[in-house]
Design goal:
alpha+beta; 3-stranded antiparallel β-sheet; rod-shaped; two-stranded antiparallel sheet
């Protein structure tokens, strides 16, 4: 029984301490295994709120910037198709709106990679350093006049 308990405690401490998050390209890896974005979001929400807020800001900037780029490109293409089909002047109002949307996407997307890097760094720091509010698990070998034993502190 003692050997089984010691084995379980050792394995659980290895699992808890080995959760480093890495970003390679647009993919997230936890212990060299790819994880989905929603899992990364859940992990950050559970471990560190500052990391979660930065990651949420990163995803929001990416979504809005992508929308503005797509909308602007679609408006420019739609104006070009409309001008070809109806023999109107090409740079029309729709092209101006599309160009403005494309230009507006740059400030929206600026700084999103810094937000991601900060979120990953904060998460890795939170996982690497144990939280003092959580219980500290200790195993000690005790020897006294009654014999030897294993002391577990939570």
């Amino acid at each position: 029984m003692k050997h089984l308990l010691l084995l379980l405690v050792t394995l659980s401490s290895i699992v808890v301490s080995a959760q480093k998050l890495e970003v390679k390209g647009k993919k997230y890896f936890l212990n060299n295994e790819q994880v989905a974005t929603y899992e990364v979001k859940k992990l950050m929400k559970d471990s560190d709120y500052a990391a979660y807020a930065n990651f949420k800001s990163y995803t929001s900037k990416t979504s809005w910037g992508g929308f503005l780029i797509g909308f602007g490109g679609a408006m420019i293409v739609a104006d070009a198709v409309k001008s070809i089909a109806s023999k109107e002047d090409y740079p029309g109002v729709m092209s101006a709106i599309g160009a403005a949307s494309l230009i507006a996407s740059f400030p929206v997307m600026k700084g999103r990679t810094k937000k991601l890097e900060k979120a990953v760094d904060l998460y890795n720091e939170a996982v690497a350093t144990p939280d003092q509010s959580k219980s500290n698990f200790e195993i000690n070998i005790v020897a006294n006049n009654r014999g030897m034993g294993l002391q577990l502190n939570f």
